[in-house]
């Protein structure tokens, strides 16, 4: 049986219950006989559940789920970060890698403050915030996205004010106003350690062209640093700042950090060039990565929304996928040797 985070594919409710009973972090299940989907949760407010108005097929499917309490979840220890400090990254040249324009940008200025995340018990890095749903849910009373909810719950991370610092990174100018509104609302709630950066995560500090997929219906989910579709025209581009992931973690988390660090990475193909360069610092600073892979970028005949023939970004750059797979295997090996604290979990594709 193939397992993804917070989800199993089973044939019956009894099988769903058995899977939950065998899972240390599972406390509640939602099972749909129509789809064979068994989703599990560490926390759930059964009194807050409600049926959705059947406005489309997805809502009709959602209404086929039945939710049940199964058992109390088992406590889980937070993984220890490796004690070794050996790394090839040059920590003496951090500020030499910073574009001068950052100092003039009010939005990017926190990146220049090495103490910006000081005192945070948990740091949540939202790489690819889109319209800010994950950070919004993180600090609300409603249920989180299933993957993030279980990732936090499994390790006993609470969502109380002051315990979590959240930084989001989103380069799409179409979302800046909405993200500003979310940030201001959270600040009014005394959640001052929340900030959205108008920048893309990449393998270097600088600037790059950002391409919109023009899919306003889906909040431009497929917008990317990669011009991968014939629907992305020159009129849809913007010049955006880029932040080096290695630099970000070195400056603001640090190899000696004992705080908890959870990172969501949904950066529309940039993960293939970004993560391999950052393996060492990720292993020393990040406890958990929730990553959405965009392998379909390498297949011109496959697109997650059905417009397969338009894809062409990486079909001739298979070496990027090879390097990415090698980086994941290296992290897995280092973790088995207690030299990497990072657990990697795949997000379901939208």
Sketch the major β-sheet: 6 strands, parallel
List the quaternary state of the chains: single chain
Portion in helices:
10-25%
Kindly report the spatial arrangement of strands forming the biggest sheet. Answer: 8-7-6-12-13-14
Task: Describe the overall structure.
It is built from ten helices and 14 strands. With 350 residues, it is of the alpha/beta class. The strands form three sheets. A six-stranded parallel beta sheet has the order 8-7-6-12-13-14, with helices on both faces. Strands 1-2-4-3-5 form a five-stranded antiparallel beta sheet. A hairpin with a 2-residue loop joins β1 (3-4) and β2 (7-9). It is globular, with a radius of gyration of 20 Å. 37% of the residues are buried.
In short:
The chain is α/β, with parallel strands linked by helices. Helix content is 24%, strand content 19%. The protein has two domains: 3-69, Hepatocyte Growth Factor, CATH 3.50.4; 103-346, no CATH class.
List keywords for this structure.
single chain; 350 residues; alpha/beta; five-stranded antiparallel sheet; 10 helices; globular
Show the helix and strand layout.
Layout: E1 3-4, E2 7-9, H1 13-21, E3 28-32, E4 37-41, H2 57-62, E5 65-69, H3 101-104, E6 122-127, H4 133-138, H5 146-154, E7 164-169, H6 176-188, E8 194-197, E9 200-202, E10 206-211, E11 237-244, H7 245-252, E12 260-265, H8 271-274, H9 279-285, E13 288-291, H10 318-336, E14 343-346
Parallel strand pairs: 6-7, 6-12, 7-8, 9-11, 12-13, 13-14
Antiparallel strand pairs: 1-2, 2-4, 3-4, 3-5, 10-11
């Amino acid at each position: 049986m193939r397992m993804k985070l917070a989800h199993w594919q089973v044939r019956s409710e009894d099988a769903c219950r058995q899977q939950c009973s065998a899972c240390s972090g599972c406390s509640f299940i939602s099972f749909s006989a129509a789809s064979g989907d068994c989703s599990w949760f560490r926390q759930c407010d059964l009194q807050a559940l409600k049926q959705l108005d059947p406005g489309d097929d997805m809502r009709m499917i959602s209404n086929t789920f039945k939710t049940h309490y199964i058992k109390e979840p088992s406590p889980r220890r937070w993984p220890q970060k490796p004690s070794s400090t050996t790394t090839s990254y040059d920590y003496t040249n951090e500020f030499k890698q910073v574009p001068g324009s950052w100092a003039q940008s009010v939005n990017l200025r926190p990146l220049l403050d090495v103490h910006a995340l000081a005192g945070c018990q948990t740091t949540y890095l939202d790489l690819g915030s889109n319209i800010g749903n994950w950070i919004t849910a993180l600090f609300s009373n409603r249920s989180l996205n299933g993957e993030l909810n279980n990732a936090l719950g499994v390790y006993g991370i609470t969502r109380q004010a002051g315990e979590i610092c959240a930084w989001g990174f989103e380069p799409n100018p179409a979302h800046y106003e909405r993200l500003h509104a979310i940030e201001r609302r959270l600040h009014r709630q005394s959640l001052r350690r929340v900030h959205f950066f108008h920048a893309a995560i990449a393998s270097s500090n600088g600037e790059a062209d950002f391409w919109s997929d023009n899919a306003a219906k889906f909040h431009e989910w497929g917008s990317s640093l990669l011009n991968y579709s014939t629907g992305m025209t020159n009129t849809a581009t913007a010049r955006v700042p880029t932040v080096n992931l290695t630099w970000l973690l070195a400056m603001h988390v640090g190899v000696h950090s004992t705080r908890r660090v959870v990172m969501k990475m949904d950066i529309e193909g940039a993960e293939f060039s970004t993560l391999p360069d950052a393996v060492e610092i990720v292993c020393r600073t990040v406890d958990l990565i929730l990553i959405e892979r965009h392998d379909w970028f390498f297949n011109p005949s496959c697109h997650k929304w059905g417009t397969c023939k338009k894809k062409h970004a990486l079909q001739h750059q298979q070496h990027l996928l090879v390097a990415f797979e090698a980086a994941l295997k290296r992290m897995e090996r280092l973790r088995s040797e207690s030299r990497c604290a990072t657990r990697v979990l795949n997000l379901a594709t939208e």
